[in-house]
Amino acid sequence: MTETVIASACYFPPAIFFKHFHRAENILLDVHEYFVKQTLRNRAYVCGANGKFSLIVPVKHTGGQLTAMKDIQISYDSPWQKIHWRSLTSAYRNSPYFEFYEDELLPVFSVKEKFLLDLNEKILQTLLKLTDTERVVTRTEKYVHKYSEDETDIRTLSDPNIFFESLTDVSTKPYPQVFASATRFIPGLSVLDALFNVGRDTFSIL
Fold this sequence. Notes:
Helix content is 33%, strand content 16%. By secondary structure, it is α/β, with parallel strands linked by helices. It is globular. It has one domain. It has helices spanning 15-23, 80-92, 98-105, 116-130, 160-166, 180-183, 191-198, 202-205, and strands at residues 2-8, 24-30, 43-48, 51-56, 136-139, 152-153. A hairpin with a 2-residue loop joins strand 3 (43-48) and strand 4 (51-56). The protein is built from eight helices and six strands. Helix 1 (15-23) packs across helix 7 (191-198).
C-alpha cells in the first residue's frame, strides 16, 4: 500500500481516482499549485441521454494572474448549484441507487462555499465515505514539483486531456450505466456515475 497519494482538489473526481485513494493510507491535496482552467479542478463528467457532458463550477476572474488553488473563489452570478443538481437528477433519477445517495449529496448543492478548495474537499470527504474508502485528507504546506518515488503523484490527471488518454492504458471494468443501450459504456466519468448505477459495488469495480 502506498503511504501517500498527492492529488489536485477536483470537483466530483472520476471513479478511477478512488482506485489510487484506496491504495493509499493518506491523501495529500495540493492547495498551492496554480489553478488551471478547463481542468477537473472545477468540472466533472457525467452521462445523460445524449452521452457524456460536463458540470462546471464558475469561478471568479483573477485578471489573468496565476492564482494558487487555495485562493480561487467560486462565482454565484448564475444559479449553477441548482443547474448541476437538476442535471444530475435528470440524468440519474432512473438509476438504481440515486435515491440512496441524494440526501448525502444535497448539502453540496445548497451550501455556498466561498472557496473552490473548500467545496472540493467537502465533496472528497463525502465521496470517500460513500465508497467505503475513508482516508486521512490533509493539505500541502507548500508547492512541491516532484515527490519521492514511494509517493504516488496523480496531479497531472486533473488535466482532462491527460486523464482520458491514460484510460487506454488503464483497465477500466465496465459496469451498468443508465443509457448504455444508447451510448455504450463510457469510461472515465465521475465516481457519481458508478455510485448511482451500482451503489456499494462501486468499491469492487475500483
